[in-house]
Queue: 2 jobs
Job 1
Amino acid sequence: MEQAKLMVFPQQDSLLFQLSGSWMLQTGVPGADESLRQLRSGTAIRRVAFDASEMRGWDSGLLTWLLALADYCNTHAIDIDSSGLPDGVVRLLALACAVPPREGAQRSVRKKSLISDIGNDTLDAARITGEFMRFFGESVLSLLNLLRGRAVYRRSDLWLIIQDAGVRALPIVSLVSFLVGLILAFVGAIQLQNFGAGIYVADLVGIAMTREMAAIMTGIIMAGRTGAAYAAELGSMSVNEEIDALQTCGFSAMEFLVLPRMLALMLMMPLLAVYADLMGILGGAVVAVAILDLTWLEYFIQVTKAVSLADFSVGIFMSMVFGIIVAVIGCLNGIKCGRNSQAVGMATTSAVVSAIVMIVIASAVLTVIFDVLGI
Amino acid sequence: MMTAATAHITVRNLTMAYGDFLIQRDLNFTIDRGDIFIIMGGSGCGKSTLMRHLVGLKAPRTGQVLYGGQSYWESDAAQQRRLKRCFGVMYQSGALWSAMTLTENIALPLEQYTDLTAQQIRRVASLKLALVGLRGFEDFYPAEISGGMQKRAGIARAMALDPEILFFDEPSAGLDPVSAKNLDDLILELRESLGTTMVIVTHELASIFAIGNNSVFLDPETKTMITTGNPHTLLKECANPKVRAFLTRGAA
């Protein structure tokens, strides 16, 4: 195709643009800046005209050039004589100029300094903490409502959510906790063997799994698996105005959406943690039997001697706390999600990251408390 | 600009189904170059599904969709891409990418398919927005503008590459009568000026008669098309009670 060409003929008080070739985006069109410069340099130009008799084809390429020209002419009181242009071009140009640019709609991007960024982040952190506390408070109130039998939610939803947070999580919980038990035993076995105390691997794995590791590992797994799912699900519901729809139908989003999820995780996390205890201890047993030449029976007797009911209860309690953390943070991020698809992604990320951070902090705090209490 | 009518899109013995669920069967119609073609029919008859078949989002169960004689579903990937470049699609609710500004929405196909510089792309994007009456909203995010404006921005994005065929899924649904009329005028104007073939899914009677010059009528009960042709002619001549009821709002 023939390249677009532009010739400019200055006449007394006007400019004549002669267009030839094909003015298509594909083949490239002359930039508007050059033409604008010619308009500016020519003194006292009152009129621009066009001759397109040699033009072979056009599309948006021509129109963008013309629009830039027309904008300049309109602001500088220069007449546009469009009689030399094809009909379609004239009409589209008129259409493009029909609605004037909206005043004040243009955005100016303000540069931010590091200090204002830090300030904003600090304010955000304070706001988010406040939001979390309020949300947590509301969810506790909805729990109380549930106990009074007044909470409105769908039973069938609750069962589905329980199923998803419980049985469906078993495979990954099995794998991770089995391997964690195995790793603990492996690391311990190498050290303990030096002292001829290989049998204490059972104590190490048993106590570590039941008190801490099972709860923390299931917590982190559920944060990535279920907390993220809650944030994404509730987030897209808020994008689609489904949460607004629930509220206008008189349902409380808190009771209808958050409560079942919180209940499900509160009930399922301890069960998963018990299961993770067993799998971890089993993982340890494999190492004990394979490397330390212990028998299965010796190992399990040693574990039952080492692990007290208190250790076990501490782990169960922690896992329930983690369940609440994962559910509340996941749901909070989902419900507070912005109204676009990117916001859903951000809500999900934030749900997982803050849930994991909170789990680690909570476990540290709880460990210190239990230590002080001597449990 | 337009010469005598030549077939642009030909649909031959098209059968559409989701799994075992039959949507429509034995569709046969032709859309000429420069036509404003209306896909009409009652709710749930498969209008939007037909459009998904025409734009290459869903493969037909049997039958062919031909663009200027070339069968879309029998072409290789490179040819399909070339054909797709000639389509512009406006989705029902705009389907603008919400994480991008209006300019970025329009710029994305341009960046992908043309060698223009960043500044030229910005100019083209501004032009397209100007054509749909959205000058000055270049740096707005879709969530910050009203539903009607989102629809128009959706049209601007569909037009980004100067497509030969523009598809509209319910363009006037949810618009006030004046905006709907303006949208119809815009569609007519684009057809007149650029010679674009328009395929429109709609059941707005006012639009159908104001802009359509060819159409197909789908029937959800018999799961096939009843008739095809100019809506005005159909109103005058078609004897089928379903079509008459549709075109006269149940009066006849």
Job 2
Amino acid sequence: MKTVGIDVGGTNADGVLLEGERLLAKAKIPVDHDNLSGVIIALLEKLLGDSAGEVDQVHLSSTLCTNAIVNGEMDEVGMLVQAGPGLNPEFLDCGENLVFLDGAIDHRGGLIQSPPVAVVDAALADFSAKGLQSIGVVTKFSHRNPQVEQELARKAASFPHVTCGHNLSGLPNFPRRVYTTWINAGLKTRFQQFSEAIHAGVKRLGITAPLSVLKADGGTIPLERAEAVPCESVLSGPSASVMGALALTPREKDFVVLDIGGTTTDIGLFADGVPLMEPYGVTIMGRPTLIRALNTRSVGLGGDSEVKRTADGYVIGPQRHGVPAAFSEGKITGATPSDAMVVLNRMEGNRERATEALHLLLPNNPPEETAREVLLTFGHNIKLAVDQMVEEVFARPVYTVSALLDRQRLEPAEIIAVGGPAEALRGELAAAFDLPCEVPLNYEVANAIGAARTRPTLSASLYANSSDGTLSIPEIGLHEKIGRSFDMKDAEERLAAAIRHLAAQAGLEGELPPVEFVEREEMNTVRGFSATGKVIALKAQVQPGLANV
Amino acid sequence: MTRYMPQAVRKTGLILFPAFDWCITPDHPEREERLLYTRDQIVEEGLEDVDGIEFFNPELAAYADIDRVHLCAPSSKALLTESHLISAGGAVRAAKAVMEKEVERAFAIVRPPGHHAMQTVFGDRGFCVANIEAVMVEYLRRHYGVRRIAIVDTDCHHGDGTQDIFYNDPDLLFISLHQDGRTLYPGTGFQNEAGGPAAQGYTINLPLPPGTGEEGFSMVTDRVVLPLLDAFKPELVLNSAGQDNHYSDPLTNMNFTAQGYARLNKAINPDICVLEGGYSIEGALPYTNLGIILAMAGLDTGNVREPDYDPQRFVQSALMNGQIEGICQNALEIFAARKKWDTSVCRGEEAVERKSIYYDTTGFGVDQVRHYKLCPDCPGYTEVEASGAGELLHGFTVPFNACSRCQQAARDAFTRAAKAKGSREQVVLQDRVADIYETA
């Protein structure tokens, strides 16, 4: 099977053509952020030449949505939000067109009161008068009862695009649901244009293979399906690098992946060979969301970071110094880790200028020694960031006695480093962690390989209350009656069916990767003094992993 | 930069541990489901993302932390499950978070509760085996050198266990607001229960008539609780934050609300809260817990209402207001007449107190005699003899603020009792000054 993987980064876009696991070709072109689809098509052309028709699938990791959010280029969204009792919702900051609705759904999904019809109608009329194209509707606890969101969506059906909170995620967390819904609705137009341009471009090149985009959760989604959920494609860069490291060095133990770049290092964690996920989702532009994501952290440590010397030692980053002395001309204004690498002959560059930069940093120290000390500090700082991440994972809240007693701290057995400075830092990283450190072959195109090798991911969540007789699977908008005898086995069956439904909806053909059930909760409900039923909560997911090739 | 999530005014720690796999019995009020809806509400509100609200997992308390407080028969190891150690450990984690300045305030939303567990423990009473606040208090004293502590117990049931443990401790002001003991378990908490011989007026009971609502709680808070806290000047204020005064609680008869709990918490301004009872698990707890958390963090509580909340329903009668005014007046007089140990007493004198303690969960009684050994220099040590459920306990407790002579006297008395002990009898020395727990 021939697969293309494309990773659009901040400066360059990389592409690879794989046959199975084998790298057939790679290509790189500079990025024009105002014309990402053009960049992708040009890269495909360069990569494939005349063999465009032979490709079986194309996977894209694009910065389109991330850039649109960061640069404030989203559509204005008309937001209808029912908060109900709880935190004062006034803090929610998602544009000028946010209307709060009275009424409430409670924590068990009970409809306490519907939103007032007149207020909804007036809000929609106002949105329409303003020419808004995208509407977002969110209620608190819509993952337990999507009915109010569904009703609001029906009322807003005349708008070109409506996003409902419950369709994006079955997880709790109302503020995140609001922000996710707003972002998704706001990306609609741009993503549509991008998708159309890509489709037109690949058609022109003669590519007939299915197109997928990479998600932040280390999985892929067909491009057509992504038009409904463009938010899923934000921050896919770190997920490409994590999956790339896995593709280049598959392992079944606990390990750490480092993608060391010019400005930042992205850190990813694996437990038993499976990448760890964020508990809820990514945070983008300060807004927490329910966009499923790998647990990655970006720290301000890179080859071009600013290095300063203080009484306590070297301080590296988080600011970027700019182009390192070793790769530039003109006045030397500071030192970077890259200069240290050049001084130690671990990287190509102007060694004289690099030496001068380190001499300026610490005049009374031999530059080679300064260089070694800077890189040791670099390794040490990465170790601190990883330790903190491991601790945060360990400290995630648990709610049962058995989970508390069985908690285990992640114990990395190896470091996998990719990115430009990775090879030059290998010794320092191994020393800092006291672990083997591997820099895989082809590490410079790890992200594109990651994009290429990644398989689809899916997830769905179920909440059943046999005492109230209700079942909810928000991702597919399901809310229906169940009998008193509904049990965990029924829950698994319904959820597996939901995953199949989502797969079909996404246009995924053939056999699905295994579905696993996680986060089981089952509790008897008692009213008065007798048992009335059960509350059952369950999640199903197809984990991120490598596609069979 | 704009903030996209609310920011807490005071950094607040939450130890939210609902123990979904632990119950007394499956249909007992203290069952797996109890904090399910509270957890669901807190998570759905997004409190994990609020700037300045930190979540901590509980730790396991050590048996030594339990033995510093209780005299257990046959032993703490035999009576306490891991769940009890986690609940106590949750309270300890809250204390650590505050003392280590990880946060300014902390709230342990844990179960099972603790405030009915007395000094001697023979089993589970009132859903409690280990008094988790008391374990926290002695932990604070032992590890952080805190001396003066005030506990405001706002559970609807009288905090008889906490009262019992600190009854003779003038460095601990215990104020309990509860439904009148004539109408509710455990049937104690009257105003004449005002402290042991060395701590007269340091136990203040405020037994409120059934039906008391926001107005009545505000009255006792403003007229009694706040002035007493001002006068006592504690280093730390703790709140035993039971939530069964709520109008929807199935076990009690009060009329309190989520808005009321939030206001009460704002007024008392506790450093650490520990959840106690509260069994309206759907209609009250999700809202009352949220109200307390937001109040602690200094966030807006105005929108924390039960879905069926209507303030008109909770207006109190003039008769009830008059009754509560009388209770406030009595409490103020008791506190005004407070006195520590009598410096004129002769060493060797004692005051004796007899108690019958009923363990309702399994149903047995314990008869107990406590001898307060009087001392002119300190609160004195106590000797306690308790028997029930086939166990015979004979304990000697040296409080943390004891003088060295009392410490030695307790040691000598323990040695004598150990020599003379019968075959069924367990003799214990609990010395909180030296942090020793010895059995014979």
